């Protein structure tokens, strides 16, 4: 009898982990990964028809319906179906199966989005009582607040009102505490920060020493906006965007389509603000520069100026779309990397210098793609109903941090470089933009309006939120 129960438990665990997966479950997972949710649900349903005691099939159905909730937040059909599927999966899962924690986390998340807060908190607390893995703690922390410790960087002066001189010698009085600071870039060694601020009624670039908090203005052009700075790998040079002023307005560039100006160009300068020179001297909208790991090239997004001409029937008119380009740092050998009928923007280099990730549109939704830095086929990494923006690789190249409007909020998420294992990093009041990572991967700098105005924040990726802190957070909720 003891042997019988041992075999029975082993069969249940094996079925749950997929070592005995029905072929339809495997097919359903692949269809879901490819974004074909209807066919995936049908495949999982076929597996359940074959054997109703398959928690993995119910769990996968619950995940698909959870994604559908984002597409139609007001609908109740998908939420009800997802909760029922996850309840079935939880009931069937072996008590000690590691995947059981993932089911409970997903169920709690869905209940939270469905305003079933009491049920959600119950599931979350049950998770913490069961001593979950660090990965589960991280996912729970990112969904209920910040996954890692975050602090605001004080970039404004100590006084409410400060004065400075323009390049022409005029005194400018501004209220630093009530203007926007944004577009941050952290130096490779993590010791300095460059950011844009419209405290002078237009966007200028400032350099801050993160140890001493000393601040230095790098640009002095009251007719122009400078923003989107990017450090070279050695930390000695900066690339940045300059354009005619927009009246001091700060517009976080979270989307490629419709957010780019009609005219902007990319400049280079030394870290002290000297030796400013244009990288690109042709008309158009050129933005989002990022240095290659070897420091020899720069990838950027570009839209050529609209021209009056007749297009060949069936051809793609790339003058009307943003495309990804690569150029040598001396301004030579400009090469177009993408050729799409939709906008491609916000490129980021993989640390090995062989791939570039970027944002592009599919069915009016922005997804993240990757392409070989020398050109070739484009690979889609995300398929969700939410839009994703501003990807950036971690220094080891294994993960990508990006902005997503999942659940109708602009938050940070992290996923594997192949698009799997997505984890939410922030769920705080306000929007979060423009992630920038230090070379050691320990500090994430970003801009957010969680304090009413756009400010610069530091996330310590070496200090994740712990279980005890989470318990206190849930008690406050």
Low-confidence stretches: 1-20, 307-318
Structural class: alpha+beta
Query: CATH topology of the largest domain, which one?
Result: Neuraminidase
- Number of separate structural domains: 2
> Strands across the major sheet, in which order?
1-26-25-24
Approximate strand percentage: 25-35%
- Annotation field: number of helices: 9
Termini gap: 47 Å
Average pLDDT, all residues? 82
Radius of gyration: 25 Å
**The CATH top-level class label of the largest domain:** Mainly Beta
Number of strands: 26
Biggest pleated sheet: 4 strands, antiparallel
CATH architecture of the largest domain: 6 Propeller
Percent of residues in helical segments? 25-40%
Name of the CATH superfamily of the largest domain: TolB, C-terminal domain
The shape is globular
Oligomer: single chain
Describe the structure in brief.
The protein has 477 residues and is an alpha+beta fold. Helices cover 26% and strands 32% of the residues. The chain has helices at residues 2-17, 23-33, 37-50, 55-71, 77-92, 99-113, 117-129, 134-144, 467-476, and strands spanning 148-153, 161-165, 171-175, 181-186, 192-197, 204-209, 215-217, 224-231, 237-244, 265-270, 277-278, 285-291, 297-303, 323-328, 335-336, 344-349, 355-362, 365-372, 378-380, 388-393, 399-404, 411-416, 423-424, 432-437, 443-451, 453-464.
């Amino acid at each position: 009898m003891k042997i019988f129960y041992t075999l029975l438990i082993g069969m249940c665990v094996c079925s749950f982990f997929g070592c005995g997966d029905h072929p339809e479950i495997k097919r359903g997972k692949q269809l879901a990964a490819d974004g074909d949710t209807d066919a995936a649900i049908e495949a999982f349903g076929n597996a359940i028809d074959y054997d109703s005691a398959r928690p993995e099939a119910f769990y996968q159905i619950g995940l698909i319906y959870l994604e559908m909730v984002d597409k139609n937040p007001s609908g109740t059909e998908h939420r009800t179906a997802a909760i029922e599927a996850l309840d079935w999966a939880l009931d069937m899962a072996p008590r000690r199966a590691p995947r059981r924690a993932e089911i409970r986390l997903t169920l709690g998340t869905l209940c939270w989005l469905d305003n079933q807060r009491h049920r959600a908190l119950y599931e979350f607390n049950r998770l913490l009582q069961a001593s979950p893995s660090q990965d589960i703690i991280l996912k729970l922390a990112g969904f209920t607040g910040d996954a890692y410790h975050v602090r605001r960087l004080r970039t404004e002066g100590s006084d409410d009102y400060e004065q400075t001189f323009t390049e022409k010698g005029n005194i400018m009085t501004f209220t630093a505490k009530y203007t926007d600071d944004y577009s941050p870039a952290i130096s490779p060694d993590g010791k300095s920060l460059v950011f844009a601020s419209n405290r002078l009624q237009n966007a200028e670039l400032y350099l801050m020493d993160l140890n001493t908090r000393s601040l230095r203005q790098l640009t002095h052009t009251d007719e122009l906006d400078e923003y989107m700075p990017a450090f070279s790998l050695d930390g000695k040079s900066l690339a940045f965007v300059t354009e005619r002023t927009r009246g001091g307005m700060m517009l976080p560039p979270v989307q490629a389509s419709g957010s780019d100006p009609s005219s902007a160009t990319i400049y280079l300068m030394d870290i002290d603000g000297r030796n400013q020179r244009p990288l690109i001297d042709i008309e158009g909208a050129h933005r989002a520069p990022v240095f290659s790991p070897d420091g020899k090239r720069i990838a950027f997004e570009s839209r050529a100026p609209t021209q009056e001409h007749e297009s060949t029937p069936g051809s793609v008119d790339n003058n009307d779309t943003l495309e990804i380009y690569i150029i040598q740092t001396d301004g030579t050998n400009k090469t177009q990397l993408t050729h799409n009928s939709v906008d491609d923007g916000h490129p980021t280099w993989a640390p090995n210098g062989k791939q570039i990730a970027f944002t592009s549109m599919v069915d009016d939704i922005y997804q993240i793609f990757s392409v070989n830095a020398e050109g070739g086929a484009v690979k889609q990494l995300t398929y969700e109903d939410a839009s994703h923006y501003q990807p950036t690789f971690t220094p080891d190249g294994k993960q990508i941090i990006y902005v997503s409007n999942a659940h109708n909020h602009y938050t940070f998420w992290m996923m594997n470089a192949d698009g799997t294992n997505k984890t939410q990093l922030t769920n705080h009041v306000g929007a979060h933009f423009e992630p920038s990572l230090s070379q050691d991967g320990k500090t994430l700098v970003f801009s957010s309006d969680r304090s009413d105005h756009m400010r610069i924040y530091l996330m310590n990726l070496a200090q994740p939120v712990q279980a005890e802190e989470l318990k206190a957070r849930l008690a406050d909720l």
